[in-house]
Amino acid sequence: MAPSSSCLLVLLSCLVFAGHLHTRCDAAGAAVLQALNCSTAGNYTPSGAYAGNLNQLLAALPDTTVSQNGGFFNGTAGQPGASGTAYALALCPVDVARADCRDCLAMATSNSSGLVKQCPGSSTVVAAYDQCLLRYSDVAFFGTAYTDVVYAWYGPDRLQTMVQNSYSSALKQSLAVLGSQAASSPQRFAVSKTSPYALVQCTWDLTADGCEACLGLLATNASDFMTIRSSGEVRTFSCRVRHSNDTFDVFPFADLGVVVNGTTNNTISNPGECQVSLLIPSVSYILNSLTLKLILNGFACVSKYICYY
What we know:
Radius of gyration: 20 Å
Mean pLDDT: 75
Number of domains: 3
Oligomer: single chain
Distance between the termini: 29 Å
């Protein structure tokens, strides 16, 4: 997709004061399924109340998650606590562009090839893709952490023996700090600003204690790959940890206020617009044309996106 003329103008204006800028207008490719859990007990029928409520939730979920809520959704269809009520949760990874997350959720909720087709009749399904997370059930689960490790990836580059212990120690200390920071953030994520670079993230429905506990378990379980690999990721269906010896892109969530049952008290601009990112030593924070003017005027932080200058 070619960048718009307004995006090009923004980019050209940025070149006046920054040498490390790039546009991000291309899709990241098809989402990759990392983990899937389909229930086998308590299955539902296509003609039942739960099926109708679930279809209603899933139909609106991609746009609601991204366009209205900025990257997270948890909501219900039906009467909470009553038989046939559907509960759903979706989350965009903070290191994935919102447009790619929306495409991922659209694929996961597709009537022809989505999770309902992959898990026919399963009343509880949870799926982790590299570009989105989706969970639905006929039983309320909001606020309950899923702490079993469901996915682990180890980078190809092994650390030299002489630096393994120092790298591992520094990373573990960083993850402990980041876990606390993510737990205190309404959007439940945090990133490091120095090497070793790390990212931690929880689903927004978790309490502060629940998020920190989930991330703490991952940090402990990740000790093996931390010691010998320069990059890696480990995740549950409720939280994830990523680390790298190199920087990586982060797409901070807009400041939307408190999300309650899939609604917010604020709105954001089109998340699919061409974006310009300012690369800083730790990660590249994504800016849109509205916030870029503030950066040009010397602001250290902006309200819609977290920015450093």
